[in-house]
Hints:
The chain is α/β, with parallel strands linked by helices.
Amino acid sequence: MAERRPAKPGKSTPKAPGAGAPKSREKTPAKRPARKAAPKTGVRVGVQPSGDGRTRVSVCAGTACVFAGSMKIHDAFVAQVREAGLADSVDVGIIGCHGLCSQGPLAVVSEGEVYYPRLREDDVARIVGEHLAGGRLVEDLLYVDPATEERIACAHDIPFYKQQTRIALRDVGVIDPESIDEYLARGGYEAGRKALGTMTPEAIVEEILASGLRGRGGAGFPTGTKWKFARQSPGDVKYVICNGDEGDPGAFMDASIMDGDPHAVIEGMVIASYAIGAHEGYIYVRAEYPLAVRRLRLALTAAEEHGFLGDDVFGIGWRFRLKIKEGAGAFVCGEETAMIASIEGRRGMPRTRPPFPATRGLWGRPTNINNVETLANVPWIVAHGAAAYAAYGNDACKGTKAFSLAGKIVNGGLAEVPMGSTLRHIIFDVGGGIKDGRAFKAVQLGGPSGGCLPASLLETTIDYESLAATGAIMGSGGMVVADDSTCMVDLAKYFLQFTQNESCGKCVPCRLGTKRMLEILERITGGEGEDGDIERLETLARTIKRTSLCGLGQTAPNPVLTTIKYFRDEYEAHIGEKRCPALSCTALIAYHIDVAACTGCTLCAKKCPMDCITGEKKQLHTIDQEICIKCDACRAACRFAAVEVLSGPDQIAAAIKRSAGK
């Protein structure tokens, strides 16, 4: 078993619970009493403390941690606490995504918010015995700051969390998402009670307008304006839809809210229903989010039992019912009219607008559609007031924005920062910078419909207008970070391949235009690029953006256009020199053994799956280029950095000539 990396002792070491707690072998009660309400601010990360005086051990049960085995960690805590006779003093529960997904599976102890990351099942007995029973922190299991190599005990002292301001994510990673009691203990449904009990629908709309909240699904349309249109549309039957069809590669903000704080979404929809006059709503969530679907169903049942949904919401006579519609995973169904078609039982394909959904939407009735994060902000705004929300952000965009940090970044996970923060702040201060000490190269924003921005634009502020000016978009909040080993032509090809595969095929520009663009990119990365390919890509991209039916087609060329704009030299190297500067495109690279560095240890030959490396022990080895599949096994095995990756005919020919001379 691998040993844990030693680290410098940290300063943030709160006192652990004492060893003198009463002991019992009785099972922890299945239903815990409601916990004491904690202040709902937008600036702190912690876990909901136990309201019955017990220490709470909260195991992250977000999607990433569950797949990493966190439920086995949870079960081990339950068993170890029972075996140690601590059931009367220690409560074991789950929380939604705690945010720092790269450190999962993780657990947080409520007293001192002690944070134990990357847990294994055999770590649990030590935490129970040394920390919970013995009153001593398990130092070697604490979080290690990658920048300082110091151990940090308290979650709120970890830089990743300290740099955040959480409003949409205020209860994600804090409460048990399967317990309505914990949501209520944090003030849940009080905003709904206030809105429906003391405010008129018009006053609610004005409050949302004054807050400056804009749609967090990507377009950034003012939420209050959208509600106002739906409110003013004539008709006795109206609908509210939550767009949970988050399909961007590398994006998981909405999923984390739905499976980490489902009641916040439901409460936001209840408020929206009253504001626009809708008695029925749908949560449209892709079936690939089974954890979110299951917890949403549990939340709907609990909300109905408590009178927060149904025929007499909050006892004021308001009628509102919610249903879950599971989508089949089509990316295009994130577009409003395609989503409506899917809910109606038709193939998910967009239609021309106008009419807009606010006037003619689901089954031809006025319909308001907001995404998950937008709705999760609504209860906070109603509870704290529009001015409090508008105090965050900048002049262009108010409030905060959640982002998923993925790719070559140290702190992969879920983060929320005020609008107006810079890309540099998010990637380096919150995200911790680039993995393995490599250089930052680009960040892809807005998913496959977004753009790739270079290091020279790291001071760009996060707001809709500033990002649009660069050629990128906010999108739903996905950030994929690339280091200097990433080929930007290949990255553009990856995202275009995604959108081309997801095209519904209804309009010719998107269906065929993206296919032609993809074919050109495949030729370029395959070493068959031609003069004029860059110009052909630009012409096709402009045509597709101008003539496609929906937002998917109109934004599909963005990754190609931004990589050409900011990384044109890489395209030119691929086409004119048949060289991949990032040494990534397999058709343009070759593996070669350096004659000066090779010791003849035979490790590379032993690892080669094709037996294409020859040479006697302690003699120079060579690679048969005709057989080599460029799997990288030889380079990874070599201890002497003797295996080189080369690109370009001239460089490869020169290396082969040197070997022949040896």
